[in-house]
Design goal:
Layout (H helix, E strand, L loop, with lengths): L1 E6 L7 E2 L6 E3 L2 E6 L5 H20 L4 H5 L3 H9 L15 E5 L3 E6 L2 E6 L8 E6 L4 H5 L11 H15 L4 E3 L6 E5 L4 E6 L2 E4 L5 H24 L6 H16 L5 H12 L6 E7 L7 H16 L5 E6 L2 H23 L5 H7 L11 E6 L5 E4 L2 E2 L2 E2 L4 H22 L1
Parallel strand pairs: 2-16, 4-14, 4-15, 8-13, 13-14
Antiparallel strand pairs: 1-3, 1-5, 5-6, 6-7, 9-10, 10-11, 11-12, 15-16, 17-18
Helix pairs in contact: 5-6, 6-9, 7-8
């Protein structure tokens, strides 16, 4: 089980009010809430700790290198622009704890401490953070010339460039009967649909947000699936890797940045066996039906590996509703199988494909409260997420206001 506990960090105050504060990350984990409530903060911290744990497992850097005073704040928190988030008020001292599958990491009193966990199976992950600003990449004609200040956006741009280079001749998008076509000669992504063909830069904002997300997720999910079937490094290769890592750190002529790049290239020898896809606002600029198709795609990519994880931050009530349908569909699939009425399965699959079905224990939805910085696990009924949440509350409020205006109109 992978879990994280956060208190008094940025918009997060007391954190999760149950389970002793531990947020458990399931195969699908979702954070909902108002702006500034801490959704992205939690997702970014999770991304950071996943990467550190991976680096520790591979031996990219020794444990003491991470624990050096100030390194976590100045290098890792600054990556996601979180370096100024600790101790923003007088609620108390920042406490951040992470327990993965191989390492436990604590950040208390500005000091990082790392402890190895008892040996268990660890799937080396490809970690990708998909920022909300991704539509900027599609909007400009030469994204490689962008002067990006966000490190996560730079990394996503690199992944997008790789996804373009590895794109098959055409790829069918799950929305609007549209295909992606990449012109390598001119470095142009085109969209082809019934009776039209246009550049991604000229497409609607929904396509500009969705296409990079879809292309990167498709590329990385397939790459990890291929790598997980390849042969792992032998003991001799591992020993040589450790020796080469040591020689890099012992080379006094290299700068810290040169050492980082050298270690990154060397670490590419390791085959990834899990895809951790962390997506900010996947619904961005999408029509509700397109949000459903987008979510089914992300769930399908997540289903390609048993160790894959999907983490979402969202303002969309449709995302929560569709996840409820995915869980309810799994319940129905089990009931159909238990009753022996397998002839009904194709009808269920026509509504919700099997790759989008979720067992109750495969999903967790957390609600972040911007009023006091607390986090609550969304209640469920037989595993189906409750419709009593902030997003649906605002939908109901709109209906209530409409009823009140009708009453005023009747009095007139």
């Amino acid at each position: 089980m992978i879990r994280m506990r956060v208190k008094n960090f940025g918009p997060v105050g007391p954190g999760l009010i149950e389970n002793d504060g531990w947020i458990e990350f399931k195969p699908v984990t979702v954070f909902i809430g108002n702006q500034g409530a801490g959704k992205s903060t939690l997702a970014k911290l999770f991304s950071t700790f996943c990467w550190i744990e991976k680096a520790l497992v591979r031996g990219d850097y020794p444990k003491k290198w991470f624990e050096r005073k100030g390194r976590f704040k100045n290098m890792f928190l600054s990556y996601h622009r979180l370096e100024n988030y600790q101790d923003l008020d007088k609620r108390g001292k920042t406490v951040i704890e992470y327990e993965g599958e191989a390492w436990a990491i604590r950040y208390i009193s500005n000091q990082l401490s790392i402890t190895a966990l008892p040996s268990q199976q660890y799937a080396l992950p490809q970690v990708m953070y998909v920022p909300a600003e991704r539509n900027f990449i599609s909007y400009v004609r030469n994204p490689s010339e962008l002067k990006l200040s966000s490190e996560s956006l730079k990394e996503f741009l690199t992944a997008f460039e790789l996804a373009k280079q590895n794109l098959p001749k055409t790829v069918k998008l799950p929305i609007n009967n549209t295909e992606i076509e990449y012109d390598k000669l001119n470095d142009i992504v085109n969209l082809k649909g019934p009776g039209h063909r246009l550049r991604l830069t000229d497409a609607s904002s929904g396509f500009q947000s969705f296409v990079p997300l879809y292309m990167v997720s498709l590329h990385l999910a397939n790459a990890v699936q291929d790598q997980s079937q390849a042969t792992s490094m032998s003991a001799d290769e591992m020993a040589r890797f450790a020796q080469e890592i040591k020689s890099i750190f012992d080379n006094s002529s290299l700068t810290q940045e040169q050492k980082r790049v050298a270690v990154s290239v060397l670490s590419g020898r390791f085959n990834k066996s899990a895809f951790i896809n962390i997506v900010e606002e996947p619904e961005q600029n999408l029509f509700p039906s397109s949000q459903w198709e987008m979510l089914k795609s992300l769930l399908a990519f997540n289903r390609q590996g048993i160790a894959n994880r999907l983490v979402l931050t969202t303002h969309s009530p449709y995302i929560v509703s569709y996840l409820s349908l995915a869980v309810q569909g799994k319940h129905l699939q089990q009931r159909i199988s238990e009753s022996g009425r397998n002839e009904l399965l194709p009808r269920l699959s026509a509504l919700i494909p099997e790759t989008a079905l979720l067992a109750p224990d495969e999903v967790a939805i957390y609600q972040c409260n911007d009023q006091d910085g607390s986090v609550t696990l969304l209640a469920n009924y037989e595993g189906i997420p409750s419709d009593k949440n902030l997003l649906n509350d605002w939908l109901r409020m709109g209906n209530t206001m409409f009823d009140q205006m009708l009453e005023l109109e009747e009095e007139l």
